[in-house]
Design brief:
The chain folds into two domains: about 5-95, Udp-n-acetylmuramoylalanyl-d-glutamate--2,6- Diaminopimelate Ligase, Chain: A, domain 1, CATH 3.40.1390; about 100-220, NIF3 (NGG1p interacting factor 3)-like (Udp-n-acetylmuramoylalanyl-d-glutamate--2,6- Diaminopimelate Ligase, Chain: A, domain 1, 3-Layer(aba) Sandwich). Helices cover about 35% and strands about 25% of the residues. The protein has helices at about 5-15, 45-55, 75-85, 95-100, 105-115, 145-155, 180-185, 205-210, 220, 225-235; strands at about 25-30, 40-45, 60-65, 90-95, 120-125, 130-140, 160, 170-175, 190-195, 210-215, 240-245. The strands form two sheets. The protein has a six-stranded mixed beta sheet. The chain has a five-stranded mixed beta sheet with strand order 1-4-3-2-11, sandwiched between helices.
């Protein structure tokens, strides 16, 4: 597949240009003109880029890219990353919020599906675009049961602060760093809220407002959309792909 064709498809499928973001989403660094192998990684770190080069990947799709809405000098680690991409003729494509909120391969929607929850609507606006999901369970949940499901998906490190009602059905999800949506989640009647990173300032809020707070680590909650996107592209293109796993444990 031509690089431009894959880039155009991703821009359209993920609505890359429509969704406001601090990340400069889309093709960030241009490389080979023909895509022969696709790589996926959460972060455009040097480890991911070196691994892509070693695996002969020439189109690397990441969630956290290199450009974040402000001027950056191409020095130090930023230079090392860009140099490695250009030297190895690797295209770098970034999808931050577009991948978080996509209804099919988005981090939030995929996590809801894996937890057997139905997404009802999105809330928690960023520059006019809602990015968190309001989901519902068909049967009543307990904090223990929700924690068990989360650990099966994300791992034993999942933390659950069981401060909410004994039984509930409504669950909010915002992967990554979504703790700031706790107040809005409470306002719309959500009993349990799932995100990646804990924030000290919301510990007492969730306790005093009787909400279950669930944390699955920033990195781990944001691998889900990339895996789903990889499956989707493999199905429609047949291009070989691989996932590079460099967790931060945060």
């Amino acid at each position: 597949m031509k690089t431009q064709d894959l880039t155009n498809y991703l821009d359209q499928y993920l609505r890359t240009q429509e969704i406001p973001d601090t990340s400069l989403n889309g093709l960030q660094v241009q490389g080979a003109k023909k895509v022969t192998k696709i790589g996926y990684a959460v972060d455009a770190c040097l480890d991911s880029i070196k691994a892509a080069a070693a695996e002969k990947v020439n189109y690397l799709i990441v969630h956290h890219g290199l450009f974040w809405g402000h001027e950056q000098t191409i020095t130090n680690s930023h230079h090392k990353r860009i140099e490695a991409l250009i030297k190895n003729n690797i295209n770098l494509y970034c999808s931050h919020l577009p991948l978080d909120i996509h209804p099919e391969v988005g981090n939030n929607a995929v996590l809801a599906t894996k937890l057997s929850l139905a997404v009802e609507y999105y809330f928690g606006e960023f520059r006019g675009t809602p990015i968190a999901v309001h989901a519902r369970s068909k049967s009543k949940l307990t904090a223990e049961k929700l924690g068990e499901r989360l650990r099966k998906v994300l791992g034993d490190h999942v933390r659950v602060d069981a401060f909410g009602p004994k039984e509930f059905k409504t669950v909010g999800i915002c992967t990554g760093a979504g703790a700031s949506f706790f107040p809005e989640a409470k306002k719309i009647g959500i009993s349990a809220f799932i995100t990646g990173e804990p924030r000290h300032s919301f510990y007492h809020f969730s306790k005093e407002e009787n909400m279950h707070a669930c944390y699955g680590r920033h990195y781990d909650t944001e691998t889900l959309g990339l895996h789903a996107l990889a499956d989707h592209l493999a199905e429609i293109s047949g291009i070989p792909h691989t996932f590079f796993d460099f967790p931060s444990d945060i």
